Amino acid sequence: VVCEISYVMVKPDGVQRGLVGEIIGRFERKGFKLKALQMRKCTREIAEEHYKDLKEKPFFKDLVDYILSGPVVAMVWEGNGVVASARKLIGATNPLNAEPGTIRGDLAIQTGRNVVHGSDSPDNGERETGLWFQGDATVEWSQTIQPWLTE
Ligand code: DAT
Ligand code: MG
Is the ipTM of this complex over 0.90? Predict the structure, then answer.
């Protein structure tokens, strides 16, 4: 039974740069299952709660302002190992250190504009999904290609 989910988000720079399809496509082609998708402008409360572990960092305010600077595309992806795999697909926090082939390695040049977020643990996948998709249930559906993706 699959129960692991990752909260993935195209940040405002990714939306403005027209990278939404490119980023969603990488997770879709990998084979993970899309459970929720919404374009939205978030509130300061949600942005601060999302990044609460970084509250003491000197860049916290700039980070929150950046997340609020335009719409984001919020997603939930499901699959065994999806959290760690999504982090690999996304690449290192500093895009200059991110491997070519990763989203940040291919598409970004600065930590403060690194186009995409992915949860760093299964617990945070649940926490962030609850935060961004409050009340809106994620969608239950069966992916008919599933037997061609997993045994
Ligand atoms: P990640 O997004 O790879 O999980 P993180 O959780 O450590 O990285 O930090 C969240 C975001 O905060 C990151 O995507 C960009 C920003 N950030 C992290 N470290 C930073 C730094 N040293 N200077 C500016 N922004 C930073
Ligand atoms: Mg993080």
Answer: yes
